[in-house]
Amino acid sequence: MVETDRDSVAQFREHVARLIGKIKSADGYPLAPLDTDLVATVRGELRDYRDRAARYIDRMREELAAANNALNEILLSIEDGDAHSEDHLKEEIGRLRSIANSSNLAEVRSRVEQSAASLEKHAEQLRREKNAVIAQLKDEIRALHKAAEESKRAAAIDPRTGLCRRDEYEKLIRRSIVADEQFTVIHVWLQNLHPLGASYSQAIMDQALLAISKRLQNVVPPESVISRWRSDVICVTAPNVLAKRVAGEMLNSVGGKYICMEDGVAHTLHLHVVVTCAAVTVRQDADAFILKLDSLTASA
Question: What Cα–Cα distance (Å) separates residue 121 from each residue in 85, 115, 128?
Answer without folding.
Answer: 12, 10, 11
